[in-house]
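Internal tracking record. Fields below are filled automatically when a chain is submitted to the structure queue. Please do not edit lines marked as system-generated. If the sequence contains nonstandard residues, flag them in the REMARKS field before resubmitting.
Queue: standard
Priority: normal
Entity type: single polypeptide chain
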Amino acid sequence: MDRTAWIAVILCVVGLVVWEFYLANQTRPKPAAMPPGPTAAPVSPTPVIATSVPASLASPAPNAAPTPTEAVPPFQEAVETLRNSDVELRLTNRGGGISQSVLLNHKAEQNEHVTLNSSDRIPIGAIIDNPAAPLLPEYKMTREGDAVQFERTMAERVTIRKKFFFQKSAEKKDNFVAELDVDLQNGGATPYANAGYFVALGSAAPIHPKDYPSYMRLVWCIDGKAKGVDVGWFGGGSGFFGVGQRAAQPFYQQNIAGAEWVAVSNQFFTTLLAPLTAKANNTWARRFDIARWPDQKSFGLEGALGMPGFQLQPGQTYRARFEIYTGPKLYHRLAQLEHNEAEIMDFGMFKIVCQFLLNFMNSLHGVLGNYAAAILALTTVIKLVLWPIQNKANRSMRQMAALSPKMQELREKYKDDPTRMNQEVMKLYKEYGINPVGGCLPMVIQIPIFFGLFKMLGQAVELRNAKFLWVRDLSQPDTVAHLPVLGWPVNIIPLCMAATQIWLMAMTPKTGDATQRRVMMFTPLIFLFICYNFAAALALYYTTQNLFSILQFYQNKRQPAPTLEKRSVAAKRKNR
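SYSTEM-GENERATED OUTPUT FOLLOWS
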């Protein structure tokens, strides 16, 4: 390999390593001293005779320093539960909200149930003035049939009533959806105005130590399009060679124009609030440390959505309704809800491909009853569809390989005139009726499939705890051991994937110049780097796909070698 090729290869490898370290640095601990984050402009209500903003429903305090939620409330905390076959909601009188949402059919580590939010974070559905320093007063909590109600009267004689319940069977949308009804009644003698308030989303935290931190996000949806920030945003960053450099932030706060919903989300689960009577106009989030795994630094995220202000004359009542989804990111269930909740999946530009692959994989699972078998069947179907195209590509590559001696002669003859050399090479292709990019077509088709699978499998909660041979969880790397001293994980399927790619490249007819071929030999290293610590399901798909390609090459090699004929000669024979 010449000097230029070595430089190109080294730069590619170094670039991948630098990018990986850059991503890792986004979630490393930062210095404690942090400048204040962005603040939202206050909501301006319509003027009234007298304005009174209670402590529990005041407008956001600008530049407030973040303080932890009260660990021990100054009153006896009480808990009530609402439960169906999928979820158990544990409601607390501390702030009048959901302290925990226990998912009864999803397992975490140590065979525990997956639990969204925690008792030491802000309860889901709590109404707060400043989420950076929340006050969570005591509410009177009562159980009425299949609903839990909260009530509290403020100094201004404004009574807050909240009601949490699952929808009745006739109107039920999903077992993971609960409804929150909020009433504020002005029992005083003077008008009351509120400049805007927040409703807490609770918190999201990683379920597994190997969950990708980039999926830990605050997300909101406007006009059917989701936007968001992840935990890496709060740590700031040095940028790329100084470009994009920014300081760490204590919290995120942003005015938004009419959000259909706001959510906090980890890689596989989400808590999502959709206001039904008015759209959200503000969003807020804060990062916090997770001490669950002492050997690594992890972060969670808690958030809140902001609602527009309102005013009440004496005796009037303000009403607001919210749908609360606390559960797994199951696309087929989220897509049936009414406010574009499925956009929480963040499929990006490969949305259509991701949707098709996910629905197809789930359909295959419905028949086969096993997700590993479904992935193998999905790979088989894709490969069979592409089989005729790959056959033509393989024939084109064999023709190119047969033409290589003539191309090498042209390169030697016109080595001092690159323009003339390219013209002669293209003339040679045309003369023999060969498409120089014919061998690339299957690869071009595979690119959206690969990245669609990458995006889809990264969030497919269906794969959690799905087993395959030695793999205990297809949504995680298939680590079987760690190298001594270095501690690096040993992941078998990605290594098999790289080995089959090397085998496949060794079988591929040699086309192009020697430098290009040597550079392409580093492709297995790049794919290994991408897939090594990703979901084992992706490496399983690609390994199976490589094995099918090897089988196809063996079949093609048993066919007669293509002969080179000039197009004019071939046309004459055809006319005879």
